[in-house]
Amino acid sequence: MQATAARAASLSVLDAEVADCFACPRLVAWREEVAVTKRASFRDQHYWGRPVPGYGVADPEIAILGLAPAAHGGNRTGRIFTGDRSGDVLFAALHRAGLVNQPTSVAADDGLTLRHLRIFAAVRCAPPDNKPLPEERDTCAPWLHRELELIRPTLKVVVALGAFAWQAWWPAMTAVYGTRPPVPRPKFGHGARVSQPGVPELLGCFHVSQQNTFTGKLTPAMLDDVFTEAKRLAQI
């Protein structure tokens, strides 16, 4: 898979290769099982049931790095953070920031467009209990690394949603930019920022999961602060 990712000459080619990946047996079995059994409220819908590629412009100044697709969100719709509660919160915030054209993301053909922005996940298949295994994260890493290589000329800021994405950034940064993480490695936190020469600014943001948004750990104002800072750093 690493060789396949490295050969992808464009984002469109990479996206097609991602969507045809069968590298992790546990994730393949889970994504396909969910696509057959379905959630009752979506029983009449056709599920994507495959790895979910990144989404957004080809020359972004800002990238959002998430954990993995949701079983009945991206795994159903085929678009990251689309059709689930996390996406409802995220895209409403991105709309307030002027980075998307509409505040909702419900289906792949709903007319959503992104501005200055690309969104992707560290792991491209929906994992059981939203918890990828370390070996699955590492197997999936070449997709992330190649995507970063392709958008490197314009990328200025990476927003890591949650500690998993924060940790996934360090090996990706080393692979793509040839820069080792600071020692000691910076801790994840909401609003945390890491600046290194020749590397995109890294911003930490609590994940837009229901666990965080329903409890008030992550509020709309906190999200707005992160994206305001991301725009400022990206000079847009």
Question: Would you kindly provide a written description of the structure presented here, covering whatever features stand out?
Answer:
40% of the residues lie in helices and 10% in strands. It has helices spanning 2-7, 11-18, 25-37, 74-77, 85-96, 134-151, 163-177, 210-213, 220-234, and strands at residues 55-56, 62-66, 117-121, 157-161, 193-194, 201-205. It has a six-stranded mixed β-sheet. The longest helix has 18 residues, at 134-151. The model has no long low-confidence stretch (mean pLDDT 97).
Short key terms for the protein model shown above:
globular, 236 residues, 6-stranded mixed sheet, single chain
Task: Summarize this structure briefly.
This protein is 40% helix and 10% strand. It has helices at 2-7, 11-18, 25-37, 74-77, 85-96, 134-151, 163-177, 210-213, 220-234, and strands at 55-56, 62-66, 117-121, 157-161, 193-194, 201-205.
- Count of DSSP-assigned helices: 9
SS-derived structural category: alpha/beta
Mean pLDDT: 97
Q: Give the helix proportion (percent range).
A: 40-55%
Order of helices and strands: HHHEEHHEHEHEEHH
| Strand elements, count | 6
What is the terminal separation in angstroms?
A: 35 Å
Name the strands of the widest sheet in spatial order: 1-3-2-4-6-5
Biggest sheet descriptor = 6 strands, mixed
User: What is the subunit arrangement here?
Assistant: single chain
Q: Low-confidence spans: pLDDT under 50, at least 5 residues? A: none
Which descriptor suits the 3D outline?
Answer: globular
